[in-house]
Amino acid sequence: MGVEPACPVLLLFLAGIIIWVVEAEVHYYDFVLAEKNFTRLCKTKSMLVVNGQFPGPTIYVHKGDTVFVNVHNHGDYGLTIHWHGVKQPRNPWSDGSAYITQCPIEPGHNFTYEVVFSEEEGTLWWHANSDWTRNTVHGAIVIYPPHGFSYPFPTPAGEQILILGTWFTYDVNKVIKEILRTGKDVPISDAYIINGQPGDFCACSKEMAYRWQVDYGKTYLIRLVNALMNEEFFFAIAGHDLIVVGIDGSYLKPFTTSYVMLSNGQTMDVLVKTNRSPGRYYMAGRQYYTDNLFFTGYDKTNASAILEYRGKYDRLSSPFFPEKLPSYTDYDSATQFRKRLKSLASKEHPIDVPRNVTTQMYITASMDKIVHNFSAYMDYTLLSSLNNISWVNPSTDVLQAYYRNLSGFYTLDFPDEPPYYFDFVADLRDDSTHPLKGTKVKVLEYGEEVEIVFQSTNLLNASDEHSMYIHGHKFYVLGEGYGNFNSTRDTETYNLVDPPYLSTASLPVKGWLTIRFKANNPAGVWAMHCQEGRHLIWGMNTVLIVKNGSNPETSIRTPPPNMPSCASYPSIHKPLEVSAE
Q: Which UniProt keywords apply (predicted)?
């Protein structure tokens, strides 16, 4: 990694408002993707990792910095790298969304991403973005305040990154490749892990649990990353309260809790005070299960790591386990935790909830199936959908097709509402809405203020929580609830004062979620999807295209010269007319 030093911070005072001007730093990383053997749960397997590490290397920056990451693919799979929660203003070329903003980096090739940290502050993460390659290809991003500025809370004595992950005892990418061919259900994980280790409650793992040593009487910052493939996750530390101060690279009004719940793909910053009797305490987590309760074969692993005080005490005794860690199906604990998330307002971090909504969308999120009638039998293919459209990846990425005015790769008719209205949360065990497969996108004018109500459906009696994520934008979560959304009753409950500012949010099982955002990332082709791997590969995805604004500062940048090639690029094309950089 190379670093160019920053220039001094300049403070300007204008009308009582502090404005800071920083010559930000530029960092350089090399990510080398290759197979390496790892042993967990008594079994050894080869898996794709970055720089021989699992989890992968951490990227450290300050707000306003730029990072160039040269990704060398020495593995067996074509893939991209996505910078989860990073806005990437005017730069969708480096978003890293497979078949949306680029085609995969094929084995034996490389590509350099330019990652711009414009408004994020806190913890985010990066991960592979092709099928399930992110299961082993991921790592944390730490974004410190701008030089010369501090946290909106007392500076901690130290910090610890804890990445929550999923472990399979085999190469899950080969299994997923077959599932994509047959349309059947995805495998259940063999364990959950913290910083790459299952912990004391799993086979062949007791001596390998991740350990974090702390001093008595200090306050530490923990940076949590939910990198699981499909699950939301409860987390707690035995005997210690957690003070939640940030989420998805934004600050929150601090609150104290005995546990946290992270949506799939979400990141969280929490403080912990080491004020208990010196000893060893489990940091433990388990999935929050919201699928059909008749199925009991889900992964019930308690992933664990150990918080270990320095000093003299009986180290032979077993660590304490968190008594207040919620159970796997504790809907109330998950809901009550989310209700406590409120944005922290300050001069440096103002709250700006859109009030002049120009586009409203009502989007159903569904599990469904397509039935195939063969001569001797019937079979089915599992699908997921948004507004009854199940996404199909094009052969050329949508961004190139849009930028170069190519036709035939997508259509502009993603609907603002579902084609059918019914009791979405009723027992619909055998019902299907016969979803359409397609590559349909929604086009937004630059600067539009957008409100989306997501509605979970119970088709096939398969309602589940969905972790809804939008690339290139963050959004305010105005409210959520159980049942069918009621535009008269439920809008009265909206939080328009200090709603959390997120990039990933939970759509409750058999419920609804309302978000608002300003479409201000121009000429971007930005994916909007459920983050959970099983729903994403089945098609719970669409794309938002934000048009250029009226000047160069509100227009897309020109593409880099070395974008990964797509086999279907025509030799003659007409570029989209855009403003120069």
A: Apoplast, Copper, Glycoprotein, Lignin degradation, Metal-binding, Oxidoreductase, Repeat, Secreted, Signal
